[in-house]
Specification:
Layout (H helix, E strand, L loop, with lengths): L3 H5 L10 H7 L3 H16 L8 H4 L12 H5 L38 H14 L8 H5 L42 H28 L8 H8 L5 H24 L7 H31 L1 H30 L36 H11 L28 H20 L1
Length: 418
């Protein structure tokens, strides 16, 4: 008779040709147990059998049973035994003490009563205090209102601008109602320079434009007669044959011929002579440089001066760029033209003064100049699509309607004939 254990332990005959069937019919419990045990050992610090006694045990030298009184006083379990300043002490009748006890130094405790009084006073009076101020940032969180969220300290660069331009720039002294002659002339000179620059840009645009192509009669005949003359093609074939012959001769010449011993010795001697001449030349140049130390020092000073001028120019450019508006959009900041009055228009009294400037426009350009607004183009009202005009037949005269009908019939006939 076959036992039940033999039947259970009997090997099942199952196909394991696929991964799915292999996973289904294979037992991997032993492997999983081994991996779990290994992971547990890694988490707990490794296998203790492989470690030494030094790694597993250590000698405890701490004084557990001899703790000082200062440590016991600082323990959290003894905090309930300390005096609370918020609770008034119970005064009782005390008898005369026989022994004089030493006074212990009491530890400094935070005065909670003062903080609670200040908070209650703020609530009662309804006084407003700055949460973001420097004084409140130094205070404890207990002094702040517990209902409010903790204050967020903004970064140091929060309210700084990337330009050094002032919000309100000082105007040119020549724009005053009664300027001096020199100031007014300076203002006119700046206006003239701006106008000359504009005219130069216009002239450059017209000059750089491609001139119109003028085709002469000779060029036209030459272009149209290309490919008609057969003599030229024959001449071209002769030149091709000559080039092929020259190439054949060059190939023959390029065949290497073995040199004799005499030729090789002669070339070696020439090479040595060349090397000696180069060494002599270098030595001569070295001696020449030693003799011209003064000239070299002059050259170094000149280079230093050039470097200084370049650095100063770079610093000036950097200073100009700091006050120059940046580009934060598709448009480019052009700036406003200088406002000026001609000598005939200048008046010595405020009553007759004509102000060409616009304060609103000036503030808007100042915001763009200080990189607080991007440069925008003025969008005028316009239509996206063109208007479609349709002539209504009922508005026309009967004669005009007859003419239109005839025209349509003619068009239909022409289409059918095609």
């Amino acid at each position: 008779m076959v036992s039940t254990e033999q039947i259970l332990n009997k090997r099942k005959r199952v196909s394991k040709k696929n991964k799915k069937a292999w996973r289904k019919h294979t037992e991997i419990k032993d492997v999983e147990k081994f991996l779990e045990a290994k992971l547990r050992e890694e988490r707990t610090g490794g296998n203790p059998t492989d470690k030494k006694n030094k790694d597993l045990f250590y000698i405890d030298k701490s004084d557990l049973f001899q703790t000082p009184k200062s440590k016991l006083a600082s323990m959290k379990c003894h905090s309930d035994l300390q005096i609370d300043t918020r609770v008034a002490p119970v005064v009782g009748r005390l008898g005369p003490s026989k022994r004089k006890k030493k006074k212990k130094k009491s530890q400094p405790q935070p005065d909670v009563a003062m903080t609670t009084e200040s908070m209650s006073a703020n609530r009662k009076t309804g006084s407003v205090y700055d949460i973001w101020g420097d004084d409140n940032q130094k205070q404890d969180q207990k002094e702040l209102d517990p209902c409010l969220p903790p204050p967020v300290q903004p970064p140091a660069i929060y309210k700084t601008s990337d330009t050094k331009i002032s919000a309100v720039e000082l105007p040119h002294p020549g724009t005053s109602y009664n300027p001096t002659f020199t100031d007014h002339q300076d203002l006119l000179q700046t206006a003239l320079e701006v106008e000359e620059k504009r005219e130069k840009e216009k002239a450059k645009a017209t000059r750089d434009a491609a001139p119109p192509i003028q085709i002469t009669e000779e060029d036209y005949i030459k272009e149209m007669s290309i490919g008609l003359n057969q003599a030229e093609s024959e001449g071209g074939s002769e030149s091709e044959s000559e080039t092929e012959a020259n190439e054949g001769e060059e190939c023959r010449k390029s065949v290497t011929v073995r040199k004799t011993r005499v030729q090789r010795n002669r070339e070696k001697a020439e090479k040595l002579k060349m090397e000696e001449a180069a060494a002599l030349r270098e030595n001569k140049q070295y001696l020449h440089q030693i003799n011209r130390i003064k000239a070299i020092k002059k050259e170094i000073r000149k280079e230093e001066k050039n470097m200084e001028t370049k650095t100063s120019a770079r610093q000036e450019k950097k200073a100009i760029n700091e006050t120059r508006p940046g580009k934060y959009g598709p448009g480019k900041f052009m700036g406003s033209e200088p406002d000026f009055l001609l000598p005939e228009e200048v008046s010595s009294s405020l009553r007759k003064l004509v102000t060409p400037a616009n304060n609103l426009q000036d503030r808007f350009t100042s915001l763009q100049k200080r990189n607080m607004l991007e440069v925008r183009k003025k969008v005028m009202p316009h239509r996206k699509y063109k208007l479609k005009h349709v002539e209504k037949w009922r508005k026309k005269l009967p004669e005009e309607i007859d003419e239109l009908v005839k025209m349509k019939r003619k068009k239909k006939k022409i289409k059918l004939s095609e």
